Amino acid sequence: PIAPPKFTPFQVTTGPSSAFTAVLKRVQRRLQQGVSPESANEVVLLESGRDALSARLHLIATAQKSIDYQTFIWADDETGHILARALITAAKRGVKVRVLVDYIGIAKDAKSLAVVTRAHPNLEVRVYRPTARTLEGGMFESIAYGLTNFKGANQRMHHKVLVVDNNIGITGGRNVENSYFDHALSMNFKDRDALIVGPVAQSMTEVFSSFWQYRHTVPAIELHDVAQAKGEFDSKILASPLGMKLIALERQSKIPSTIRRSIVGNLRPIKHAEFISDLPGKNGALALSGGGRATAHILRALEEAQQEVWIQSPYLVLGKKGLRYFRRFRKHHPNVTINISTNSFGSTDNLVAYAGNVRLRDRYVHEFGFNVSEYKPWPRDLRRVLPTYDWLASESKAIKARPSFVCIHAKSFVVDDSLAF
After folding, report:
1. Percent of the chain at pLDDT above 70?
2. Angle between helices 320-332 and 293-303 (to 10 degrees)
3. CB atoms < 10 A from the CB of 305, how many?
């Protein structure tokens, strides 16, 4: 059992340029009328990379008090730079900014990280579970760490969370990299975020803080090469053709009417919302056999199925526990339809994971009765799911690279068309 979060009084803290002010006031009115914090939230799915990036840029630009950004990957590319620049700007106008990145996924550029960490006292960057005392060139130290403490080296932080002013949050699959926002020349991830307005954002802040204060989380400035590096913010990356496109997108994201039309207008009140998260230090059992909160909630959701389950995942590989679970599930739920959406050989970003899927596919189909659909790298509705395709294709052709293609990265479970994870 997991204790419910303790909600504090909800505050509407938005600037005059925020497109979310009216929504926050609606949420506040529901709470004043006696609606529970879990039932007073509004949610919208961010399916397109453009909307996902616009939403982030708008929230950062209109934040009044705090921004918490947690991610597995922060790349040193155009998307990484446009978001870093936006966070620095927010810090300079008085917003408290905390950025938490996993050591494995952070760009290995000590100079760039040093510039960001020293940009303003209001902005602090921490690194989750470093396996070396430097950002660059720590390969041998990381290998030694892995050999002597494999469980610690293997225990990573895969969260992607943005919380603004403790009342609006975004969570889902998107890291900070061009490929997650429809702007990569080669592979672009078909991903999904949920943007939530309301008290549940407080739960997101609470979980973020638990990772921020975790004993294996280290201030970036304490990494030796970051502490010694000096320089200025590199503006050359944003001078590229893609950089110019993102600068234009950033300008548009600051126009409230644009965000109201594309995102805020699609927000919907929902009956019940919870933020479910694994905790830092997850998987402390022997032989890496320990699970987490998220796994427990997914299994609980699946057990409630009466008619139909939809599962979307980039990888479809069940271990021994998973195989035993679905064998039991099929015995107790013989009439529940299970639909699986996953990658094909042509669209996957992980051939090893796909090989595991191929090995088990007969069991999935014949023993468990899964309806498995595999995504094509260039689906029939390519220009709908990747509106930037034609521009990316022309850029790819110029450098003689493989044309841009789409790879599923979203992870979603939907039970009986009423419960979504």
Report:
1. 96
2. 20
3. 19
Report yes or no: 81 and 116 within 8 Å, Cβ to Cβ: no
Token output for 22: 């009216």
* 25 phi, psi to nearest 5 deg: -70, -35
* CB atoms near residue 414 (< 10 Å): 17
Handedness of CA 345, 324, 333, 367 (dihedral sign): positive
* CA dihedral of residues 106, 109, 112, 113 (deg, nearest 10): 50
What per-residue confidence (pLDDT) applies to 10?
84
CB atoms within 10 A of CB 297: 16
CA distance 151 to 156: 10
Per-residue pLDDT band at 163 (split at 50, 70, 90): very high
With beta carbons less than 8 A apart as the criterion, state whether 35 and 268 touch.
no
User: Is the confidence at residue 5, as pLDDT, over 70?
Assistant: no
- β-strands 405-408, 187-190: how paired? parallel
How far is Cα 416 from Cα 414, in angstroms, rounded to an integer?
A: 7
* Beta pairing, strands 123-128 & 161-164: unpaired
Question: Is residue 55 within 8 Å of residue 195, measured between CB atoms?
Answer: yes
Give the burial class of 190: count Cβ atoms within 10 A of its Cβ; 0-12 exposed, 13-18 middle, 19 or more buried.
buried
CA neighbor of 54 nearest in space, from 266, 208, 200: 266
Nearest residue to 176 via CA among 190, 156, 161, 197: 161
Question: Under DSSP, is residue 384 helix (H, G, I), strand (E, B) or coil?
Answer: helix
How confident is the model over 329-354, as a mean pLDDT? 95
**Which tens digits make up the pLDDT trace of 14-51?**
777 899 999 999 999 999 999 999 999 999 999 999 99
Q: Is the pTM of this model over 0.70?
A: yes
Paired tokens of 118: 């020293």
Residue 299 Cα distances to 5, 127, 326, 356, angstroms: 21, 31, 10, 22
Digit-coded pLDDT (tens) for 248-294: 999 999 999 999 999 999 999 999 999 999 988 876 555 555 568 88
